[in-house]
Amino acid sequence: MRHLLCQLVALTVLLAQPAPIMFKGGTYDPAIPTPSQVLGYEIGDRFTDYRNLEQYFEALAGSSERIQRRTYGSTYGQRRLQILIISSPDNLRRLDEIKSKNKLLTDPRAKVPRSEIESILDTSPAIVWLSYGVHGNEACSPEAAILTAYQLVAGTDARTMRILENIIVIIDPAVNPDGRERYVQWVNSVTGSRPNPNPDALEHSEPWPRGRTNHYYFDLNRDWAWMTQKETQARIPLYREWMPHVHVDFHEMSYQASYFFFPAAVPVHSDYPPEVKKWGRIYGEGNAAAFDELGISYYTQEFFDLFYPGYGDSWPTFNGAIGMTYEQAGQVGVAIKKANGETLTLRDRARNHFITGMATLETTVKNKKERLKDFRKFWETALRSTSRTKGFIIPPQPDPNRAARLVNILLAQGIEVHRLKESVQLTAQKFFAKQSSRENFPAGTYVVSLEQPQSRLAKAVLEPQTALQDTFFYDVSAWSLPVAFGIPAYLTESPLPPSAELITALPIAAGGLVNGKASYAYLIPWERNDAVKVAWQLLEKGFALNVASRSFEVDKRTFGAGTIIAFVGNNSDSLHDVIGRLAVANGVDVYSASTGLTEKGINLGSSRVRPIRRAEIAVVADTPVRANGFGEMWYMFDQEYRIPFTAIRSRELSEVNLSKYQVIILPDGGDYRSVFDSTRVDKLKRWVQDGGILIGIEGAARFFLKSRSGLTSATLVTEKKDDDKTTEEKEKEKQKKEEQKRLTLFEKEERQRIEQIPGSIFSAFVDASHPIGYGYDRELYVLKGNAIPVELNESAHTVARFSPDTLHISGYSVPDLSKRVANSAYIIEFSQGKGKIVLFTEAITFRRFWVGLDRLLLNAVLFLPRPE
Q1: pLDDT exceeds 70 at position 19
Q2: pLDDT at 409 over 60
């Protein structure tokens, strides 16, 4: 009796479980394993960890001739990156032919008969790439990838068969495996036998650093154009091998929302052809029809724009595809109750992404030839630019390694780059200069012509000033690669010189000992970022190094402030061999000196040459630190410069013996006052007075203000006392307050939107005689965000300040905001006792493609600590 009762209970539970999510009217091959047969649960019951995700796709790939599974790289966490290629067996047998024919569509310069192009447009399948889970904690989309893959492999109905006959479907089921696994392991560990829909429940409150980002806490959806991360570096070559016609990036947003799909919001980048908006409407209508049939809520043309080129929708669109973002409400546990009383489940979220994924495929089938025709047209029109600008010139100096790194990014994205084989005079205009002139460019200079199929992408990532069409930006509004790399680039009105050679790859920049073995000292100039690696490795190996605080001339070469000097007499004989090997390995020229007597400037024995030390560095982590800000620093130190540091939880800083460290860095973050009480602040203050170097970045720099922690006397420009304001400033404030009283709700929202700096390029002046400014020219171009500017301070040293006049260079900013930024602090330094507190008021390591500013932070780490 008891056994029979258990069977009845089990049957009741089974019947109560929701049926698998299926395609309407779908029929299925029973030989193909369902997700529940392999995983032991239905999609939507729980989150699928990466091991089980792989297990299911392995089972699927072994069961059918419709699917091929390929790995294309690995993550920093040693997880495999994979794609599934799904189509009819006949299409899969001729993949190489399909890819090669598709490539013919991307270069109209190839002498291909029109009849052959027409044949390709008529007979070739469309290529649709579906990317899931670029943000690891937007975790419903890989569940949808499982459903979509099963439908395409197992479906036997006419609708599925039409998709397979007409499309090569590429599924990247988890673009960010490390972030996903961080999230899934956490959420599964805190979810009980039944999910708790109460929004207050732990399973809806993800801890720092959250699963959105990859191993180094980078947002991979901002990295497509810059390729800083291992995952992106593996994905871009594979993407370019296929050059899909449609790309969809599946996301999640606030659980209180509904569902977003294209058309995109404004701004849409001005270099896109008009067909982009047309196809946004076509796919939007296809998705809307599918949702309308089921009564699912959605919206379009709000919030998610198509402007910044580093997204998973905008970058593919610059490569001829129709790139689109689909956003499902979520970013929570398995089930949550919304404010309207509805309960949103993981099953709902996965179902909705499954529906739009399939609708996108069906819309592509219906419009296949037209989509391929517009794909071809994209590349044809790219060659017909009417702009006066014919290209960009990238000089290899002052840092050949940085220039080569930039060029390699372009080459990896299929952008053609030429190099001058001899000196050439061209009509050119330096970035942000007012007019062009005839300039002489030496052999070795790089030229990117806009007379190429990839002209749109080249222009988008290189141009100094992007055309702005709106006042709202989902991301930054300026990003020019040469500016970010600190390279003095030019626009040119001249056509590509005949002597320029097309390059396909760059060797590592050459470096080594100049003038052979030194008898007196080795000199390392400080213009190159990679010089930092040489200096740090020498310090790690125990060699004694010094830094010159003023310039000098040796053998008719000027060595600026910041030049590293390794005296032969102060080091072991192994210096000669080690410094030579490091110079070659890092592509840095190290100069030999036979005497301490210089031709100009200070002598090498001057008191302005002082020893430097290898500092022990601590970086604060955890709440309220912004995970991206910590990750950028972690990646820079760990992967790029190989400089070790100790990460310390913010709440544990009061328990740590700070005397072990010479430098403590607080990355950008929220309100540090939530963690740093007066006891912790006092401990930091005493440590600084004993000789410590305390560095705050952006939000952390504002924590150092007089009105917050009181660590310094720094103030915001908005904290200016009434007595210090001009009559004009007082009158403007009065007018603004009066206007505010009369505004409608819409007008208030619009004003708030307009009065933002979303991330724009501003000009700053740097004190190149200060240790933080070593190796820099007087003027810098920096990224300014929306943080309130910091006043200059008579008690501090101004290392860098925003320019007083033409300070807003590129991107969005209204005049009143620019005026407020003028003459405010970019970097200021306060001396306290034996130590210093340094405020970097803006992001200094932004997404690791803004590498031209690296040495500002690294200089502080290397040169500010007191020598032992």
Answers
A1: no
A2: yes
Q: State which H helix or E strand residue 111 sits in.
A: none
> pLDDT digits over 183-208, tens only?
999 999 999 999 999 999 999 999 99
- Taking only the tens place, the pLDDT of each residue in 499-524 is 899 999 887 678 999 999 999 999 99
Using alpha carbons, select from 367, 354, 368 the residue that is nearest to residue 155. 354
Sort 506 into a burial class: Cβ within 10 Å, 0-12 / 13-18 / 19+: middle
Give the pLDDT of residue 755.
65
Closest by CA position to 825, among listed 796, 868, 854: 796
CA–CA separation, 273 vs 255, rounded Å?
Answer: 34
* CB environment 127-159: b (16+ within 10 A), e (fewer): bbbbbbbbbbbbbbbbbbbbbbbbbbbbbeeeb
The DSSP code for 639 is I
Q: Which residue in the block uniquely carries the two structure tokens 């008009």?
A: 274
Asked if residue 728 has pLDDT above 90, the reply is: no
Order across the sheet with 552-554: list the strands.
557-559, 552-554, 600-601
- Distances in Å between the Cα of 393 and the Cα atoms of 490, 498, 813 are 5, 15, 27
Rounded Cα–Cα distance for residues 791 and 714 (Å)? 7
Q: Looking at 97-231, which runs of residues are DSSP E strands?
A: 126-132, 167-172
Q: What is the distance between the alpha carbons of residues 684 and 662, in angstroms, rounded to a whole number?
A: 12
Cα separation of 527 and 69, whole Å? 46
C-alpha 833/C-alpha 432 separation (Å) is 42
Q: Which residues contact 423 (CB under 8 A, 6 or more apart)?
A: 440, 441, 442, 443
Is the pLDDT assigned to residue 750 strictly greater than 60? no
Residue type at position 12: T
| Burial of 120: CB neighbours in 10 Å, binned 0-12, 13-18, 19+ | middle
Give the type of residue at 535. Answer: A
Distance CA 95, CA 678 (A): 65
Q: Got the DSSP string for 796-828?
A: SEEEEEE-SSS-EEES---HHHHHHHTT-EEEE
Closest CA to 616 of 865, 319, 317: 865
Tokens 């602040």 appear where?
A: 681
3-class SS of residue 759: coil
More confident residue, 176 or 811: 176
